[in-house]
Give the backbone structure.
Amino acid sequence: MSDTIAALATGAQISAIGIVRLSGERAVELAGTLFRPRAGVALQDCPAHTLVYGELFDRGGALLDLCLCTYSRAPHSYTGEDTAEFQCHGSPLVLRALLDELFALGARQALPGEFTKRAFLNGRMELSSAEAVADLIDAESAESARNAAAQLAGALGVRMDGVYASLGDISAHYHAVLDYPDEDIEDFRLAEYRAEIAHAAEEVASLLATFARGRLMRGGIPAAIVGRPNAGKSSLLNALLGYERAIVTRVPGTTRDTIEEKLVLGGLCLRLIDTAGIRETDDEVERLGVERSRDALERAELVLAVVDGSEEPTEEDAAVIAAAEKAKRAIVVISKKDLSGGVRIDTALPTVNISSLTGEGIEALGEAIKGLFPLPETPAGGILTNARQAEALGRAQEHLRAALDALDTGATPDIVLTETEGAMAAIGELNGRTVREDVTERIFSRFCVGK
């Protein structure tokens, strides 16, 4: 990692500010070659970690921009290397020219995630914290952002460090007794070991149990809007999105296929799926749409069963509600409140009256949805959202269970040792203690360039 990398850290579109980053042995030197502080001193003679105002030139001496520049010296930087950062006006032409000048001076284009990868490899952050950088960038709800921010600060590492250390003590004692039988070393404390391993298993299981919520938090909750034709499904979708995404007419069966959009409602990111009206039909195209509707209903984590509030409920409405009652979570949405005094629906499901025309009831719908997805009681950042981390913890859990079984069945100490160390290796993958190089490459490949 002796080479110096550079990249645009902000978007390539026109903006008020554009940021270009450098990291590596020559970062400060290259930045100082192109940037002249207005104070009349060289950049490297200015205080580190300080924004300096000055002029940006190309190699030929032509002025490119008036901008700010700052630098940091290793190891006190984001990457753990010498770094520099230009804060320019957000002209794509200026930013491209700056990058071209830096590349001509010997820097190279940074790869996706290479700045954060260097921070991990240089010991500036744990792997789980590095992954949280991408999660924070991709966060689509306040809940996701808060969880990612806490993990960026090391929440997962703090939670698992105690477990790792406890298992490490057991492993060290086993090795000492097995390798030095003639030494005066305290014998195995099986009862104490069992309690420690059982506690470790509980901690791992507790964190692993949050992954179901974390997966929904990260990818969005699949929420199917279902109902008979003209019940108000597409109008509800449009009202929630704030624009006309789906065609709405008085003709039943307008929606022939599923339409999927994301939005935040009740503080939760929803993947809303507007479906074709569910009814018996001889129209082949509509029938295919109905089949997709039923499939979406079965796969959804949340079902919004829409009933036309301006009419008395029909047998088709009853069939839709019956199907919703079998779903994982469901809410009955009585639509067209502006056209009716409301109808009564015989169901134990939560019920919300809404008007897609006026927006009345939308906030209440958000609160009802929020009530169906309560947050688990965990410390800040304690919700597992990463499939790689969940898979590693799953293996750790298997090893810990095997270690407990070995203790309970009177197996030889080496079997307990093998399972304990297997659990340690799996837990170590969370923060990068034992992660393989190919896994590291896959993790950082999903990052943006410049991050």
Observations:
- The radius of gyration is 29 Å.
